[in-house]
What we know:
The structure holds 2 protein chains of 2 kinds.
Chain A: H1 17-27, H2 29-39, H3 42-64, H4 69-74, H5 77-88, H6 96-111, H7 123-134, H8 136-139, H9 157-166, H10 175-178, H11 183-192, H12 197-201, H13 214-230, H14 237-256, H15 264-268, H16 273-280, H17 291-311, H18 318-336
Helix pairs in contact in A: 1-5, 1-13, 2-13, 3-5, 3-6, 5-6, 5-7, 6-7, 7-18, 13-16, 14-16, 14-17, 17-18
Chain B: H1 2-14, H2 25-31, H3 35-58, H4 68-90, H5 92-98, H6 109-119, H7 124-154, E1 156-157, H8 162-165, E2 174-175, H9 187-204, H10 207-222
Antiparallel strand pairs in B: 1-2
Helix pairs in contact in B: 1-7, 3-4, 3-6, 3-7, 4-5, 4-6, 6-7, 7-9
Amino acid sequence: MNFPINSSPHVLPITSVPIIMRHVLYALIPSTIVYVWYFGFGIFINMLIASIAALISEAIMLRIRNRPIKPSLADGSAIVTAILIAFSIPPLAPWWLPVLGASSAIVLAKHLYGGIGANIFNPAMVGYAILLLSFPVQMTHWIPPQIENLGFQNIDLWSTVLYSVTGSLPSNLNLDAITQATPLDIVKGGLKNGISINELRSGPLFSQLGGYGWEWINIFTAFGGVYLLYKGIIRWHIPVSLLTSITIFAALFYLYDPNQNLSPSFHLLSGATVLGAFFIATDPVSAAATNQGRLIYGASIGALTYAIRTWGGYPDGLAFAVLLMNLMVPLIDRFTTPKIYGQQQ
Amino acid sequence: MSDIKTLIVDGLWTKNPALIQLLGICPLLAITTTLVNGLALGIATTVVLICTNSIVSLIRHTLLPSVRILIFVMIISSLVTTIDLLTNAFFHELHGVLGLFIPLIITNCTILAQAESVASRNSIGKSIISGGSAGLGFTAVLLVLGGFREIIGRGSLFSGIDMILGDSATDSFIKFPFDGALVAILPPGAFFGLAILIALRNLFIPTATIEQRLETNISESHG
């Protein structure tokens, strides 16, 4: 009988890209369900279009770079990028929005830097940033949560598909009547016009904890994140430090003046905070590689997100915070690399 | 004759200031939001290049080597000031758009490089041809990058042409049937655009060739 003799470690972590990507997709299921519950099936259309665009651009780039096409297409990394982009664009979007987002993520952020494992920026966030900078109007046309009658006109699946394909709505629907700014956007604009937080939060799009609907999307995203932690696909350092630092900053300013600053719960449960903490900032390629570095990286993203949300030009700052900290990763890694025992200076 | 041809080809392509030597990148990136802006800055730079080269070439025998850079910069800055005042007088709107970047032509390395390496060593005719072709090469890159960014970023071409041709040309720009992706006009678009142009240049003249050429030049001048 043949007994293979291996050196330790004997319990191997999950290291293959397809398995990791599959678990990431599983982990996104709960938040997708809640998302559909509140915002309708638009996200499925965006996911489908973005995935097709991502796979096609991935295949073209691999072909140009003379790399084997099949294994890279099948590993699911392009799909994960596309799904994350679909999460970050409005459910009601013209078809070219997810196409441009996914293809620029794959072409510019992934393959121009050398493909999977060599990208210094998070591809999904590059795609999102390009879309947000290029098409500010289309990117801020969010439909309000439709599960209860909030006084907004509802839009059905067929009209969503029609809008995606043709860019126009049936004649009984008006784009301005069925779309709304996101809660973070409303707060940003309202504070600028001197309206207090209390008045703003009495609006229909707000609930006790955060934006109506958004709070549950973020909570269920966190369930997915815990699943990833349990499976050992991500480490706790980045999500914990990110969420802690955003909570600390929000709490400090909230305690100073609750009428001008959003509560910590609102910051945690709106926009992309939780999605960013568990799914985006933890991208193994573009994040810091040491545990100490991960703590610094996550905390800095939290602080930057808070700063951009509060004083910056855009309502949510997570994408820009992640991209900025991606730039800092080599420096962080350099200063946090553990010293070899006996080599210490 | 072939000498002059080499000078022209060098300026336009084989030693193109923007694509091969990568000089004067700052105004190139900042101004090329539209084709017309690029054209205006290109013309201004070319005029300054030709004038500087001819003046430097004329006084090259009386130049003291120790203060030559100082003299070059003084000549360049007086010419640029003239151009700045002339644009302000005759193309006032355009001057408003180009703003700081006309005075900044003084610091454009292409001009100093031409004065130092061509004009201070060659006859006036050669210097003018070399300066003119380098300027035209620079302008060509400005035009391509400006046109590329304008088409993608605004869905138009030649917008603002009235700033050069007068009010009669207000509507004579091309409008494409899309609004464009704003990112191409913003600073990242400039870097993407220039990177794409340099990548395309790489197809014809690989960067490795340029570096090799540079090394042989250095070793020759030392040897």
